[in-house]
UniProtKB/TrEMBL annotation:
Residues 157-234 form the Galactosyltransferase C-terminal domain. Residues 27-152 form the Galactosyltransferase N-terminal domain. Its EC number is 2.4.1.-. GO terms for biological process: carbohydrate metabolic process; galactosylceramide biosynthetic process. Residues 336-346, 390-402 have a biased composition (Basic and acidic residues). This is Beta-1,4-galactosyltransferase. Gene3D superfamilies: Spore Coat Polysaccharide Biosynthesis Protein SpsA, Chain A. Responsible for the synthesis of complex-type N-linked oligosaccharides in many glycoproteins as well as the carbohydrate moieties of glycolipids. The lineage of its organism: Eukaryota, Metazoa, Chordata, Craniata, Vertebrata. Its main location: Golgi.
Length: 439
């Protein structure tokens, strides 16, 4: 039962601006409206328990998680105010010990979301021993209280499963953008985000590949829980579509261990503890790709061209045929079938390739020349990866019946002739969020 909040207590329910707030612990679906833009003063008045730097710790219970929210930002003041207005009460209702970090890119260079996330993670871990890192876009507002901002002990989580921008459907099964969660150990295990993605697009697919390269899987909440509403905006100057994103993606299988947290360089200009968040301003340099890559594409694979199209259906079809699909086939990776939750609702499948739409198939087959070039490129990539990394071993007749197939990474047979069990090669697929329900 809901009762009006006391005058002296924090209004934990962030109702649309202008409407009365109510005290609730678990609400479920939320009403999110962008009809009025709140001021920072109004947000601060609604959240008196938030301490300097955007920190909060529940006073009447042990927090279920120590979560740092990392938000890359530049020229999005309106979006930031909308997010803070809804996010602070949302996190308090979940009884989290949390801190919000806004990472601002200084200068007018092309926007680099991935590198700013690396900067935010490094600076946040200097302040406290956070056990969960939430990487959050500034224009996405959660619409369901049951979407817990906690991490899984074994595998990264992608929580923005259904956005109104995509008609509340997952765009494609490899998608890892929007809002995602990793423990600090998981983040370091994949070497963080890549630093070379300047402009829009590509870095979320890169991180998805890194997760799987390291033997982990992507966990997702049910579609009904992972709802997000996007603040409408026009295209940003300085955040144009990255024309080199496919160039970089196809090199990920070799570059991920050298490009990330271990190669991060930046100049910290300021770190301010403001009433609602910690503001980090950093100079992350400029984009070197305009002269380094140029128009030559896939120089490592003969310089063949690759079609670039911003259409989402076409991109979905392209991603279905990405180097990751070829590499995973060569490496023998295979995800277990999606499990059914307690309520009988199946989570969004992430181990199966979505079927392309009829329009995407027509566009794919529309140009014979482009199709031939792409197929030749992918075949070359497959040969390049499979040959040095996964050498084929010809089995003797006596071994053919004793060697058992292994699900997961390929491994040489033991002295007894049997392959090592898959449980020793990849983590358990059980979802262990460790989140306890509120009292």
């Amino acid at each position: 039962m809901a009762t009006p909040a006391a005058a002296s207590g924090p209004a934990l329910f962030a109702s649309p601006l202008g409407q009365s707030a109510r005290w609730r612990l678990e609400i479920g679906p939320l009403i999110v409206s962008f009809s009025q833009v709140p001021t920072l003063q109004q947000i601060q008045e609604k959240n008196p328990a938030v301490e300097s730097g955007g920190r909060y710790r529940p006073s009447n219970c042990e927090p279920r998680s120590r979560t740092a929210i990392i938000i890359p930002h530049r020229n999005r003041e309106t979006h930031l105010r909308h997010l803070l207005y809804y996010l602070h009460p949302f996190l308090q209702r979940q009884q989290l010990h949390y801190g919000i970090y806004i990472v601002h890119q200084a200068g007018n260079a092309t926007f680099n979301r991935a590198k700013l996330l690396n900067v935010g993670v490094k600076e946040a871990l200097k302040d406290e021993e956070w056990n969960c890192l939430f990487l959050h876009d500034v224009d996405l507002i959660p619409e369901n209280d049951h979407n817990l901002y906690v991490c899984d002990q074994w595998n990264p989580r992608h929580v923005s499963v259904a956005m109104n921008k995509f008609k509340y459907k997952l765009p494609y099964y490899q998608y890892f953008g929007g809002v995602s969660a990793l423990t600090p150990d998981q983040y370091m295990k994949i070497n963080g985000f890549p630093n070379q993605y300047w402009g829009w697009g590509g870095e979320d697919d890169d991180i998805s590949m890194r997760v799987r390269f390291r033997g982990m899987k992507i966990l997702r909440p049910p579609v009904s829980v992972g709802h997000y509403k996007m603040v409408k905006h026009q295209g940003d100057q300085g955040n144009e579509q990255n024309p080199h994103r496919f160039d970089l993606l196809i090199r990920t299988y070799r570059s991920w261990s050298q490009d990330g947290m271990n190669s991060l360089s930046y100049k910290l200009l300021s770190k301010e503890l403001l009433p609602l968040y910690t503001n980090i301003t950093a100079d992350i340099g400029t984009n070197p790709q305009a002269t380094k890559i140029g128009k030559g594409f896939l120089s490592d694979f003969g310089g063949r061209d690759f079609p670039r199209d911003s259409n989402r259906d076409f991109r979905q079809e392209m991603l279905r045929k990405t180097p990751f699909a070829k590499l995973s086939q060569a490496m023998g990776w295979k995800d277990p079938p999606p499990e059914t939750d307690k309520k009988g609702e199946k989570p969004t499948p992430i181990s199966e390739n979505p079927k392309p739409s009829p329009g995407a198939e027509k566009r794919w087959k529309g140009s014979a020349a482009s199709t031939n070039k792409v197929e030749a490129t992918l075949e070359t990539f497959s040969d390049t990866v499979a040959s040095p990394e996964v050498p084929k071993r010809v089995l003797k007749e006596s071994e053919k019946e004793t060697v058992q197939p292994v699900r997961g990474f390929s491994s040489p047979p033991s002295s007894s002739g049997h392959a090592a069990p898959s449980s020793a090669l990849r983590p358990d697929s059980t979802n262990r969020t460790g989140a306890r329900t509120a009292d």
